[in-house]
Amino acid sequence: KPILNGRDSVRRVLETFKERPDMAHEVNSYYGPVIENFDCDKSVYMAVEVTAGNRLFHHIVETDKFGTKILKEMNNQRLPGEVTFMPLNRLHVKAIDYPETSDAIPMISKLNYDAKYDRAMRYIFGKTLICRNLEAATNLARTSGLDCVTLEGDQVSSKGSLTGGYFNTLRSRLEIQKTRSELMTQITTMETELSTLRDEIRKADQNISSYVSEMQRTETKNSKAKDIYDKMK
């Protein structure tokens, strides 16, 4: 709940900034939550979700200064929620030499995202391997120094800890986000179509008004001509 409240509060702050001449130009420095800025195959949903955890809802911003401005405005308006920002200018990621093996693949290679967000994605997913099974995950975590996860969501930390259990795939946050994105796309398409139809109706009304005015002028001319004709009889 605090995370969702935070998301809504950030949106309210951005709307406030859009109306302020001194801040409107900075609004584009906000890129949205991590979960809205990448997609991947459904087969790796579970592995990706357990790796990221609540970091899926961290907010990507261009700079730490802009993130600070959003937080200050949230405090000024006393808006509820919990927010964590990922400023691209402050994230440091190192190049990783991934092991060449048929038992695992770098998680980052399974994600699709704009290159603009590369630092944020590598910061969260860059140190994790998706492994064929738990045995391979255990071995690779020990030999590669990287965190490992199976497609079922079992995790083996490079430090030795194992985490797992049953995960309800019907409540996948990535699946919900995908559905939401598809619905938002449909809404945008329908709004565009509705706007087009309204324009067509407006033009039709203008044409009708023009025709009616022309008919009235013609009737007036005919009436005057008839009056003149009657007087000449």
From TrEMBL:
Spell out the Basic and acidic residues composition-biased ranges: 216-233
Q: Which GO terms describe its biological process?
A: chromosome organization
For this record, an example GO cellular component is: chromosome
Q: Where is this region: Disordered?
A: 213-233
* SMC hinge domain: residues covered: 28-141
Q: Which molecular function terms from Gene Ontology are attached? A: ATP binding
Highest rank taxon of the organism: Eukaryota
What protein is this chain from? SMC hinge domain-containing protein
Q: Which organism is it from?
A: Bracon brevicornis
